[in-house]
């Protein structure tokens, strides 16, 4: 059995020949891992007792009154390590052990995936190396400290702007060199096949839980789901359970400072088709060169996006739009002050989008995927306030 390589025309495996055997090995290992009942039971038990699943679906009454809609929050911020990233890292950590790999490398932007990877490596006794752009190391220092406490070697990457793209570049270089002993624990639905499929599967638990929970509360499905999109793991994995249902799906990208190229990370809204990190997808580029990007949230400033989102955009199943930094901040402070929940700046883009479109969402029942908590962003918030 082989996994599906493309989502429409998007995806694929545009990589150096030296990586093909490793990607084939990963695909075969993943398929065997999924068939192994003992391994799946061990993973499912740990998702409950270690990660804390299922995460709650919380009715945010005060925020609902403020918006004029009925808003539920899928509380991925309450998962162990404070974000949805742990679902994928725990599963890939067990997969790496299953495949006999004893060294893990990862990339991280906001640090949420880095912390989740370091956590799982500590738990499973695996060597851990995390690549992080220099800019992100500086603005996400709390998460860098957490990774080091957990035993990870955090390598700051200065090339190509020092953001998430730079970190992925270096992680892929490391993997090419050390592929026999090393598993690349990719944190989003990006990269060459089979990574988008694997990450999408390991994170699909978010949507499955949300669908079951909203039926329990409302005796029907919601009208709307809203999630932020950088690489796209949290959005795709809550959308995926509702793709065949009559539910409106909105992916919210980072509009940054303006719509000028270099000032934002709105890949699906403002980009064109191109290849980045081994896959065909939408891409922010100029004259065939990958463009620089900006977002107030370190987890969204990525010039590419998962190939399944490009397919969902072109087939019009999901509406992709963007909000600017200041609108994300409005969402951040609104939820903090109305509900006593400090959201991650990534998730704040989804909140800001609902606030900016109150009339469109009036009287509708909405689920917002609260993908992470915002204590990691306090240095950025303090800098903005000064």
Short key terms for the protein model shown above:
four-stranded parallel β-sheet; globular; 386 residues; alpha/beta
Task: Describe it.
This protein is an alpha/beta fold and 386 residues long. It is 45% helix and 19% strand. The protein contains 17 helices and 16 strands. The chain has helices at 20-35, 37-51, 61-67, 85-98, 112-124, 134-139, 141-149, 164-177, 195-203, 205-218, 233-239, 267-270, 307-314, 325-339, 345-356, 358-361, 378-385; strands at 6-7, 10-11, 57-59, 70-75, 103-108, 127-133, 153-157, 182-184, 224-228, 248-256, 272-276, 279-283, 285-286, 289-290, 319-324, 365-370. The strands form 5 sheets. The chain has a 6-stranded mixed β-sheet, with helices on both faces. A 4-stranded parallel β-sheet has the order 7-6-5-8, with helices on both faces. A two-stranded antiparallel ribbon has the order 1-2. Helix 5 (112-124) packs parallel to helix 7. 57% of the residues are buried. The mean pLDDT is 95.
Summed up:
The chain has helices at 20-35, 37-51, 61-67, 85-98, 112-124, 134-139, 141-149, 164-177, 195-203, 205-218, 233-239, 267-270, 307-314, 325-339, 345-356, 358-361, 378-385, and strands at 6-7, 10-11, 57-59, 70-75, 103-108, 127-133, 153-157, 182-184, 224-228, 248-256, 272-276, 279-283, 285-286, 289-290, 319-324, 365-370. By secondary structure, it is an alpha/beta fold.
